[in-house]
Amino acid sequence: KQEVTQIPAALSVPEGENLVLNCSFTDSAIYNLQWFRQDPGKGLTSLLLIQSSQREQTSGRLNASLDKSSGRSTLYIAASQPGDSATYLCAVGEGAQKLVFGQGTRLTINP
Amino acid sequence: NAGVTQTPKFQVLKTGQSMTLQCAQDMNHEYMSWYRQDPGMGLRLIHYSVGAGITDQGEVPNGYNVSRSTTEDFPLRLLSAAPSQTSVYFCASSYSMVLGDGYTFGSGTRLTVV
Predict the structure, then answer these.
(1) What is the reported pLDDT for B74?
(2) Which of A46, A52, A97 sits opposite B33 (nearest CB)?
(3) Is the pLDDT of residue B42 over 90?
(4) For the residues of chain B, what is the DSSP string, one character each?
(5) CB-neighbour burial class of residue A70 (10 A; exposed 0-12, middle 13-18, buried 19+)
(6) Which residue, A55, A9, A8, is CA-closest to A32?
(7) Is residue A96 less than 8 Å (CB to CB) from chain B?
(8) Which residue from B44, B97, B108 is facing A97, i.e. has the nearest CB?
């Protein structure tokens, strides 16, 4: 059974810092990996999608990497801003069109 | 293009009542699914569908029914609500994960069972 783990569970950093969020998964037989952002009381917003054949994807200040062999993905956020404060969820796409989620990293950017 | 639309946004039920959570997408996506989100448990798959007329169980299907009569709609039915079903429910859709497409999520339904 696929298990997805996100470390740390919570992170607080000052504005302007670069930071890395980690995601690990136990079964490398995945279709893709998707990073989401969730604001309190809101739905999930897709940030980046990495296909199983890709190593990384970039969107603006965000960069996500994927290493299937080691079962790891990282989300790099450059020049963090208070508006980046949210919970970040990692989800692995596997057979039968299922997503398996980690429990998220709650990020706080302090002005 | 509305994406994935969920109704209602909030609902309070009494134990034993039944209700249907609605989900509709206008992106012609084949794949749709329902997740519930609970504190400390993350998002867990309830039921999913790979096309009209085809549904299957996910990780936590007990107490829920689904049907998929059209490509656009995927309602989730609570047969007899229990306090353990208090949660936030999300509907999601995808064109094809096999082809590498990601999932789009609705804004959620917050359900409280008293």
Answers:
(1) 98
(2) A97
(3) no
(4) ---EEEE-SEEEE-TT--EEEEEEESS--SEEEEEEEETTTEEEEEEEEEETTEEEE-SS-TTEEE--SSSSB--EEESS--GGG-EEEEEEEES-TTTT---EE---EEEEE-
(5) exposed
(6) A55
(7) yes
(8) B97
d(CA A78, CA A19): 7
Rounded mean pLDDT of B64-91? 97
Per DSSP, what are the bridge partners of residue A75? A21, A64
| CB contact at 8 A, B48 and B31 | yes
Is the separation of the CB atoms in B23 and B44 below 8 Å? Answer: no
Q: Is B7 within 8 Å of B108 (Cβ atoms)?
A: no
pLDDT of A106 over the 80 cut: yes
> Structure tokens of A91?
């989800």
State the pLDDT confidence band at B41, using cuts at 50, 70 and 90.
confident
